[in-house]
Write a structure and sequence with these properties.
The complex is a heterodimer of chains A (100) and B (212).
Chain A: H1 16-27, E1 31-32, H2 33-40, H3 44-56, E2 60-67, E3 70-77, H4 79-99
Antiparallel strand pairs in A: 1-3, 2-3
Chain B: H1 2-22, H2 29-58, H3 63-100, H4 107-133, H5 141-156, H6 164-179, H7 185-209
Classes of the chains: A alpha+beta (100), B mainly alpha (212).
Chain lengths: 100, 212
């Protein structure tokens, strides 16, 4: 039987990469692209597309600035992002507790 | 069932990413043990320097000269202990970070350094001011070192292994206690920087590093 709680899981965090991005941003105010890439062990393109998707949902704030000639992109979670992720974690927790 | 397994794995991922991205985890217990041993050797050398000074003064040699020599030697011993401890910590952290598959220098390292550096710098300058004024103020150098070092550990503990917090609290307690027994400053210094580091280092090694 399928647990009814499963439908409450936020679709935006279904992908492991997005889940990872949000986890890192819950404990760091801002994180730059390369750090995120190393932590999650994903390719540039993959990370960029997931970041764009989270931004579109309003969960992620992307900031671009110039350091010398290079662009430095940093990410932070929006208030909506933090709230949505916390709710997602609560649902996950409930699902796990049902197993025990 | 596979659905549920996936949720469990997701939670595990979240937990490890949160830890890995916010804390410097490569601190090795062995660094603590070595730092403690250096400090004990340093305290012993300091004891010799101070006894020599007292003896020479009793025999009526030039007080100012003897006094300056004692201060200079003590500062050299402290610097030696500090530099050796830092080099050892660097060496073991480098080894441990490789075993953990993490980088030694990333934003967590920087954050730990910065947060420990603020109380340490303030304490260092404060101790220099005590040396500068000399006289009885000198007796407060050992307690001050312990207290500011403890504060630095408590401050830095948010960004590394959490147990550092308890080490910091103990250092502060010993520092404050030694303020009331100034003549035994060197003993408290040896307990705080020597014995505590060895105990803490052994504990951490057994808890975290043994299986690596």
């Amino acid at each position: 039987m399928i647990n009814p709680n499963i439908h409450k899981l936020n679709k935006a965090f279904e992908s492991r990469v997005r889940l990872g991005i949000m986890s890192v941003l819950m404990v760091n105010d801002t994180v730059d692209f390369n750090t995120l890439k190393e932590l999650l062990q994903v390719t540039d393109g993959n990370l960029a597309s997931h970041n764009a998707a989270l931004e579109k949902d309003g969960y992620l704030h992307i900031k671009k600035e110039f350091v010398g000639k290079k662009t430095l992109t940093t990410y932070s979670a929006t208030k909506a992002g933090v709230k949505a992720f916390e709710e997602h974690l609560n649902v996950l927790e409930k699902l796990i507790k049902k197993i025990d | 069932m596979t659905e549920e397994k996936q949720q469990l794995e997701a939670l595990r991922d979240i937990r490890s990413l949160m830890q890995q991205s916010s804390k410097f985890l490569s601190l090795s217990g062995l660094s603590g043990i070595f730092a403690g041993v250096y400090a004990l050797v340093g305290a012993y050398l300091g004891h010799i320097v101070i006894s020599k000074f007292l003896e020479n003064v009793k025999h009526g040699t030039n007080f100012t000269f003897e006094y300056r020599r004692m201060i200079l030697l003590s500062v050299l011993i402290c610097s030696g202990v500090l530099i050796l401890s830092l080099l050892t910590a660097f060496y073991f952290s480098n080894t441990k970070s490789k075993k953990l598959g993490q980088k030694l220098f990333d934003h967590t390292t920087l954050r730990l350094f910065l947060n420990m550096f603020i109380p340490l710098l303030a304490g260092g300058i404060f101790c220099i001011s005590l040396l500068y004024h000399g006289g009885v103020y000198m007796l407060l150098v050992a307690p001050s070192m312990l207290i500011f070092y403890g504060l630095a550990l408590v401050n830095g503990s948010k960004y590394t292994l959490h147990d550092i917090r308890y080490l910091g609290l103990l250092e502060i307690a010993i520092g404050i206690a030694s303020c009331f027994y100034l003549s035994a400053g060197l003993w408290f210094w040896a307990i705080g920087f020597g014995a505590l580091h060895i105990i803490y280092g052994a504990y951490t090694w057994f808890k975290h590093d043994r299986h690596l």
